[in-house]
Structure formats: structure tokens, C-alpha cells
Design brief:
The structure holds two protein chains of two kinds. By secondary structure, chain A is α+β, with helices and mostly antiparallel strands. Chain A has helices at about 5-10, 65-80, 110-115, 125-145, 220, 230-245, 255-265, 275, 295-300, 315, 320-325, 330-335, 345-350, 370-380, 400-405, 425-465, 475-520, 520-530, and strands at about 25-35, 40-45, 50-60, 90-95, 95-105, 110, 145, 155-160, 165, 175, 265-270, 395-400, 410-415. Chain A has three domains: about 20-105, Phosphorylase Kinase, domain 1 (2-Layer Sandwich); about 110-275 and about 290-420, Transferase(Phosphotransferase), domain 1; about 430-530. In chain A, the strands form four sheets. Chain A has a five-stranded antiparallel β-sheet. The longest helix of chain A is centred in the last third of the chain and has 47 residues, at about 475-520. Chain B has helices spanning about 10-30, 35-60, 65-80, 80-90, 95-110, 120-125, 130-135, 145-155, 155-165, 170-175, 180-195, 200-210, 210-220, 225-240, 245-255, 255-265, 270-285, 295-300, 305-310, 320-335; strands at about 110-115, 115. A two-stranded antiparallel sheet of chain B has the order 1-2. In chain B, helix 1 (about 10-30) runs antiparallel to helix 2 (about 35-60), helix 1 (about 10-30) runs parallel beside helix 3 (about 65-80) and helix 14 (about 225-240) packs parallel to helix 17. The model of chain B has no long low-confidence stretch (mean pLDDT about 90). Classes of the chains: A alpha+beta, B mainly alpha. Chains A and B meet through helix 1, helix 2, strand 4 and helix 17 of A and helix 2, helix 5, helix 11 and helix 14 of B. Chain A: Pfam families: Pkinase.
């Protein structure tokens, strides 16, 4: 069998050029991206024959992360070595900025490629090659016991030859590393998600919120359960949809709502109507995208509600969808996608907003300011709830479809009723309102339950703390750890109560609007109730 | 012929023994460079063995670690000098194997055999290994690996004490300021661990070494021109002084006008984060019930400036504790 990627990984480690550790050795050429607290430059490393690099300059004063987090990211990046994983050449401080010197990825992130030329998604064969490389990176990371926790198109970088590197380990976590505050001794199993019941908080369970809302797996949102490597697989599935449609599912909702949806509802994927029912019929004129069965099957396996049922990255790599990849697909990607979008330099020049899409720089909300994307985005913003017609094959939260609950692992839903498009506005409107009512009914009690359970947990920890008088060094360590947990829990309780309050206010507001809306006609109500 | 007999599954002790033999081979044949096919082969075998040690200790995708296997492994590992060999040979291993080895060493520090931490006893008898690990900060290629191992070793109170009392403590003031961010931060993390983890040991170290330690700390770290150095140092100072076990050291620190001057300068730092951390130490000077005259004099001389400063001193998010502390400090200074 061919050696695993990691077997070869160390080889170029030793013969790597030494990048200088001072700002003077680099000439900044132009800005290629920016986020809240970081700017990314294209730069030349003068002593190394003006080799082109990317420099991410992180403003440590403005960064919300504390220095330990920044350090852990830098360390993670320095110790990873795989052709599909972005690795820093070096990092050093310049005043209150941290400069991270990285390989320059000439085509920028997939998110930026989507928004600057493919607002409706990429061709399937391109999706296959870039996702295959992304999976290879995930295999490597997972084998290392590392969870990425923020897989999305914005973190997948493409070079001019179509090769791909996974970036941004800002939130990644290693299950071999105990968190700084929880310095007590224990070692966890590599990939149990969820962790075995009854076990104390093992190091493979990360209880802090991480990641970007739209790509987050349900169990990450349910973070008190803890989650593992399979959360990355969920995000990977969402990323596949993002590449197929140009944006992640549910992204027309505000992030907090999109999260609620995932907690409270089962999700199903709307299958392209034409592919399911109207084969041979005359509906070819409809501008619907067709996705191969292999693709849909691959995505639905990633989006299983139950983490254990999602395939591992390694298994996913053997999925038929990736079997068809040929090396010429890279050429296709270069010619038809990379050559069709402006260069990263141009993208940054004509962008009016700050956006981190050109590089790994954190981009909190998906930004769409490409000419094509604007229309879609603007239209979405006015719409309340979610839209059934605009795109096929999309995450569609539903509250109580009985057959759904029987097979929660089959999110592709073949539904002939959704076949019609524009003529049945009324019916869809009805469904939309049903959904809204359902949400208000389900969301708040659910949040209250979570809140209750958290409060109980906190009390339990407090009891343990009080019961333990504690003297020696070891006890002090445990105590410290427990205090850490208590603080975490308190913070979460606080956040959740705020969220409950907000949600209740929002529900009240929606109810009011609904009431008003009942007097007007349906189309109007859908527009007014959307804006918050 | 070999193939006719199914090889017995290796016990954890077998894996350790084989690892040790391979390490000895590697250690002896260190001179030969690449191209040596036999050496390459041994190297690959070694990598496999170390990976296996890791999966016994941590479990793998299918199974959780088995206590009995871990005990066997640990006993065999420390029966002879496997740890020493592994540390010495680490620079010769490839990156992935280095990482595995680091995780193995880290895990072994917590393994118990008949409720004794074997690793701790081994290290106490082999303290020179700590010297080797610390010197790793001078070699960019292995600094992060040795650094991680070192932090695991100083979980043992006796080992932390050894490092604290050694001359190495002085070297940390250099390591912390290395230009390479990863390595400097790693050294900082170790330094912080040494000075905060074992409360009683730290208190004893600080009172015994008060003069040189805080003089270095003030001049080299708190007065550094490097932003990160300053920010980490002021945070650490706060952590140390606010710990109840260090109250004697704290009283001594806040009775010095030189220290006060440094802290007041940090309050005016251009970095908000540094200002806030400095405030958490400055408040101790103000709250001190037995302020020496020289401290009072400085505070009185700068009273109006300080009050003006605190009037505009806010942090972004609401923090009741911070506001209460600020009120208290203002009251104290006004009353002088």
C-alpha cells in the first residue's frame, strides 16, 4: 500500500529554507485581504531572492484572542507538515503585530473565488478535486489527533496550479493537549464522538464554542455534549454545499437563527426537483443545477445528525464521488475557474468593504460584494424565514415530517410536491409561516432546557468544589480545573439566557407582525416580517 | 521459513524493548548520512514502534487505552534508559516521529505503576535530562518538542524545584525574548508554568531569590521594548503577586518605590492590554495599608494626574470587579 501522507511529511522539513525573522527582510507588495484584526499582504522575502510569500499581520491589540491562543495557533501551524495543509514559514513580532510568514497562494480562498466569479457555485468536477485535497488535509489532521473546527470555503486556499491548502488553525484543537486551565492529568481516546458516557470530561471533548455559525455541526452548537473529529466532517459537508451553491445553506438567516434551526429542527436537503421527478418531462428549461448522485450521497453522509454515523475523512476519500478525479481536472480548474476570476490583488483593490476572503484572515460573516453576488444577497436579506424556490438542493429546516424522523440519516428528501416553482406562492407562504410558528414553539423551551441543564451542571461543580477543602498541590490543580469549568459554564449560562431573552422578544415581534400580516396579502407579509 | 510461523502479537513491553534497540542503533550510527539503506530501514521501523507506543498510551480510533498495557509499557520504559535515548535521538527523527515521541513522553509523565509516578522517580535520578531539554530552546528545530516535554516534566513538583533552583532560570530571560515567536512563546509558557504551578515551591523560590529575580524581571521583561515580552511579563507578575501563597513576596514588591515607578510607566503604555494588566498590579500598591513614605510621596506628588488618568480609564466590556477596584484605588489615592 502507498505510504500514508504523513510518512513522507517530515522529509522536506530539514531542507527548508530559513526565513528571516525581521520585518526589514520583507518588502510588502500589496494588500490581498483583511479581517477584523488581521491584514494579509503579498510580500517578497529579499534575502531569499525575493521569494514571494504571504504575510498575515495580526494586530495583537485588537485581536480578541489572548496571547496563549495566538501562540497555540502558531505552534500548530509550525508543527504540521502536509502538502494540503498551510504551514507557516515563520512568525515574529513587529511592534504590537504578529507577522506570520506563509506560502503565497495565488488564487486566494475558494470563498473569494466564489464571490468574485461564481456566485452560483462551481462545476462539480472542480468541487471534486478541491474537496479531495481538502479531505487529504483532514485525514492528516485527524490522524494527528487535531480537529480543525472551522472548515469552510474561506479557509481553503488555492494556488495558481489548482493545488489546495487548508488554512486557519485559529480555533483548532489538539486532543493530545490539555487545555491550559485544565492542567490535571488525563489522557483521552483519539476519536470518540461523543465521548463515552460517564467518563469525566475527557480531553477529546471540547466544550467551547468555536467555528463560524453556518458551517457548525449541531453537536458543536450543542456544545455541552462535547464533540470530536466528526464535527469537521459535518462542516466539510456544508462546505461541499457552499461550493455547489456559492453560499452555505441557511446563510440567508442571521447566524444565531441559523444555529437555532440546527438545534431545534431536523434538516433535510432539498433535492433538485428535476432530477427526482421530472426526468424526461419538459422542464429542462428551468435553470436548476443538476448534481450527480455520487455528490448528493457524499454530502448526505456528512450531514448525518448523529456524529458516529458520519464517515471518517479517510473513508470519505474512498467515496465514489472522488474516485472520478483525474489529474487533468486540475487543468480544468485552472482554465475554467482560476483564469475566470480576477487575481487576488485585483480582488482586494476593487473591494470596497474590508473582507478577509482572499486569505485565511477571519471573515466573520460571509461577505458577498461581487457584482453577481450582490443581487442574490440583497434579495435574500429581505426574505423572511427561508426560501424554497430560489435554489434547489438546499438545507431546509422542517419541524415534524414524520418520515424524516424515522430516517434522520437520509437528508435528501425526494419530495414531488416541491416540484412546482413560482405558481404556488401561496402554498409556500403557508409553509413558511408554519415553520415560523414551529420555531417559536420549539426554540424557546429548548433553550430553557439547555439553560436548566447548564445551571444544574454548575451547581454540581460548585458542590464538588465546596466539598473539597483541598490542601496539597494536586488538589490545587484539580480545584483550578474545576474553577475553570465553573467559569466556562457560567459564561455559557449567561450567553444562553441572553439568547433566550432575545429569542422571546423576537418571537413576540414576529407574532405581532404575523397578526398584522394576516390582513395584508401574502407576498407583502413575507417581505415585512423578514427585516428585524 | 519465517513466514511459516505466525508471529506472536507483541506485548507493550516488546514494543518498548524494540524501540530501545533501534534507538541504540541510531545513537551509535549517528555519523552516517543519508543514502544508508540500512539506517533508513531502521529509522522507518523506529517510527512505527514509536507510533505504536503512542496508540497504546492514548488509544486509537477503535479503542480506548488499556490500563494494564499502559502499566507494562511504563515499567519497561523506565526499567532502562529509554527516555534518555529518546531525548538524545530526537533531533535525528523526522517531524512526525518527533511529535509522536513528544506525546509519548508527555503521557508517560502521568502514568502510575502501583500508585507511584515512575517518571518522576526516574527524572529525579536523571536530572541532567532537564538540562538537555532546556537547552533545546537554543535549537530552532527541536525547541518546540523539547519545550513540550519539559512542561510535562515540571508537572512533578521535585523536578520543577530542580529547574527553579538551577542556573537555567536566568536563561529563560533570554529565551523569552528570542525573535522566533513560536519558540519565545513556548519558553514563556514554560516560565509561567514554573512560576505558578507548585504554589509552595514557587513561594519559597521567590522569597529566596527575590533580589536577583525581580531585578531581572523589572529591567529585562517589564522594561523590554518588545511588546509581547512586556505584555506577557506584566500578566505573569499579576498572576504571581495576586496568588495568596505569595502574599509575603507581594508585600515586599509593593513596598518599593522603584517597582511603583515601573508600574506607573506601564499604566501609560500605548497598549490598552498592558495598561489593564498593569492596573491589576498597581492597585496592590494603592491598597497596601502600610505604604512606605517613599511610595506615599510618589502617589501624592502624582495625585491629580493619577486621578485624571483613572477618570478616563475604561475597558471595553463591562466588568464590575474592575470598576470596583478602580473606585477603591481612587478612594485610596484621594485620601492620602
Amino acid at each position: 500500500p502507498p505510504p500514508p501522507p504523513s510518512a513522507m511529511a517530515g522529509d522536506h522539513y530539514h531542507q527548508q529554507a530559513r526565513y528571516p525573522l525581521d520585518a526589514g527582510s520583507y518588502r510588502l507588495l500589496c494588500k490581498i485581504g483583511s479581517g477584523v484584526s488581521a491584514v494579509v499582504y503579498k510580500a517578497a522575502c529579499v534575502p531569499l531572492g525575493s521569494a514571494v510569500v504571504a504575510i498575515k499581520a495580526i494586530d495583537l491589540e485588537r485581536s480578541r484572542a489572548n496571547l496563549d491562543e495566538v501562540w497555540r495557533e502558531a505552534k500548530a501551524m509550525a508543527l504540521l507538515s502536509h502538502r494540503n495543509v498551510l504551514r507557516a514559514h515563520c512568525s515574529f513580532t513587529v511592534g504590537s503585530h504578529l507577522w506570520v510568514v506563509m506560502p503565497f497562494m495565488a488564487a486566494g480562498s475558494l470563498h473569494s473565488i466564489l464571490s468574485h466569479g461564481f456566485p452560483d457555485g462551481l462545476p462539480e468536477q472542480c468541487i471534486a478535486v478541491v474537496l479531495r485535497d481538502t479531505l487529504r488535509a483532514l485525514c492528516y489532521l485527524h490522524e494527528q489527533g487535531r480537529i480543525h473546527r472551522d472548515i469552510k470555503a474561506g479557509n481553503i486556499l488555492v494556488d495558481s496550479d489548482g493545488s489546495v491548502k487548508l488554512a486557519d488553525f485559529g480555533v483548532s484543537a489538539s486532543i493530545y493537549e490539555t487545555a491550559p486551565s485544565t492542567s490535571s492529568a488525563f489522557s483521552g481516546p483519539i476519536n470518540h464522538a461523543p465521548p463515552p458516557s460517564g467518563a469525566a470530561l475527557s480531553s477529546s471533548c471540547f466544550n467551547d464554542m468555536a467555528g463560524t455559525p453556518y458551517w457548525m455541526a449541531p453537536e458543536v452548537i450543542h456544545s455541552h455534549v462535547g464533540y470530536g473529529i466528526k464535527a469537521d466532517i459535518w462542516s466539510f459537508g456544508i462546505t461541499a454545499l457552499e461550493l455547489a451553491h456559492g453560499r452555505p445553506p441557511l446563510s440567508h438567516l442571521p447566524p444565531s437563527k441559523s444555529m437555532l434551526m440546527r438545534i431545534t429542527s431536523r434538516v433535510r436537503l432539498e433535492v433538485d426537483a428535476s432530477s427526482s421527478s421530472s426526468e424526461g418531462s419538459s422542464s429542462a428549461a428551468r435553470k436548476k443545477k443538476k448534481f450527480s448522485k455520487a455528490f448528493k450521497d457524499m454530502v448526505s453522509s456528512c450531514l448525518c445528525q448523529e456524529p458516529a454515523k458520519r464517515p471518517s475523512a479517510e473513508k470519505l476519500l474512498r467515496h465514489p464521488f472522488f474516485k472520478g478525479c483525474r489529474s487533468r481536472d486540475y487543468d480544468y480548474l485552472v482554465r475554467n475557474v482560476l483564469d475566470a476570476v480576477p487575481t487576488v490583488e485585483e480582488r482586494c483593490r476593487d473591494s470596497t468593504q474590508l473582507c478577509g476572503c482572499a486569505r485565511g484572515a477571519r471573515c466573520v460573516s460571509p461577505c458577498r460584494h461581487a457584482s453577481g453576488g450582490n443581487v442574490v444577497a440583497a434579495k435574500n436579506r429581505r426574505i423572511s424565514g427561508w426560501n424554497f424556490n430560489e435554489e434547489s438542493f438546499e438545507l431546509d429546516p422542517t419541524d415534524k415530517p414524520p418520515e424524516q424522523q424515522q430516517q434522520p440519516c437520509f437528508p435528501f428528501h425526494h419530495d414531488n410536491d416541491d416540484d412546482d416553482d413560482d405558481d404556488d406562492m401561496v402554498e409556500h407562504e403557508q409553509e413558511r409561516q408554519d415553520g415560523k410558528d414551529g420555531l417559536s414553539d420549539v426554540a424557546v423551551p429548548h433553550l430553557v432546557t439547555i439553560l436548566g441543564s447548564l445551571e444544574m451542571q454548575r451547581d454540581m461543580v460548585m458542590q464538588v468544589l465546596e466539598g473539597d477543602g483541598g490542601g496539597g498541590g494536586e488538589t490545587a490543580g484539580r480545584e483550578e480545573m474545576l474553577v475553570g469549568y465553573v467559569r466556562e459554564l457560567e459564561k455559557r449560562v449567561q450567553e444562553l439566557s441572553t439568547e433566550v431573552e432575545e429569542e422571546m422578544a423576537r418571537n413576540a415581534h414576529l407574532q405581532e407582525l404575523l397578526h398584522e400580516g394576516a390582513c395584508e396579502n401574502h407576498t407583502d407579509s413575507s417581505h415585512t416580517s423578514g427585516s428585524r | 521459513m519465517k513466514g511459516l510461523f505466525k508471529s506472536k502479537p507483541r506485548t507493550p513491553a516488546d514494543v518498548v524493548r524494540q524501540t530501545r534497540e533501534l534507538l541504540i542503533f541510531l545513537d551509535l550510527h549517528s555519523g552516517s548520512r543519508g543514502g544508508d539503506a540500512k539506517r533508513e530501514e531502521k529509522m522507518a521501523e523506529l517510527s512505527k514502534n514509536i507510533r505504536e507506543l503512542k496508540s497504546i498510551l492514548y488509544g486509537n480510533g477503535e479503542s480506548e487505552p488499556v490500563t494494564e498495557a499502559c502499566v507494562q509499557l511504563t515499567q519497561e520504559f523506565f526499567r532502562e534508559n529509554t527516555l534518555r535515548l529518546l531525548i538524545i535521538c530526537l533531533p535525528k527523527l523526522n517531524l512526525e516521529t518527533r511529535k509522536d515521541a513528544t506525546q509519548v513522553v508527555a503521557n508517560l509523565q502521568r502514568q502510575q505503576v502501583s500508585s507511584k509516578i515512575v517518571a518522576s522517580e526516574y527524572l529525579e535520578a536523571n536530572k541532567d535530562l532537564l538540562d538537555t531539554l532546556i537547552s533545546g530552546y537554543e535549537n530552532m528545530d527541536i525547541a518546540l518538542h523539547y519545550g513540550s516535554m519539559l512542561r510535562e516534566c515540571i508537572r512533578h513538583q521535585s523536578i520543577a524545584r530542580y529547574v527553579l533552583e538551577s542556573d537555567h532560570m536566568k536563561k529563560f530571560f533570554d529565551y523569552i525574548q528570542l525573535p522566533n515567536f513560536d519558540i519565545a512563546s513556548d519558553a514563556s509558557a514554560t516560565f509561567k508554568e514554573l512560576l505558578t504551578r507548585h504554589k509552595a515551591t514557587v513561594a519559597e523560590f521567590l522569597s529566596k531569590n527575590y533580589d536577583w529575580f525581580f531585578s531581572e524581571f523589572n529591567t529585562r521583561l517589564l522594561s523590554s521594548t518588545n511588546y509581547i515580552t512586556k505584555r506577557q511579563a506584566i500578566k505573569l507578575l499579576g498572576d504571581m503577586l495576586l496568588d495568596r501563597s505569595n502574599s509575603a513576596v507581594m508585600m515586599r514588591y509593593v513596598s518599593s518605590k522603584d517597582n511603583l515607578m515601573i508600574l506607573m510607566n506601564l499604566l501609560r503604555d500605548s497598549s490598552k492590554n498592558i495598561q489593564i494588566e498593569a492596573f491589576h498590579v498597581f492597585k496592590l500598591f494603592a491598597a497596601n495599608k502600610n505604604k512606605p513614605t517613599e511610595v506615599v510621596n510618589i502617589l501624592v506628588t502624582n495625585r491629580s494626574k493619577l486621578l485624571r488618568f483613572f477618570a478616563g480609564f475604561k475597558i471595553d466590556k463591562e466588568d464590575e470587579q474592575f470598576e470596583a477596584d478602580k473606585e477603591q484605588v481612587i478612594k485610596e489615592i484621594s485620601a492620602l
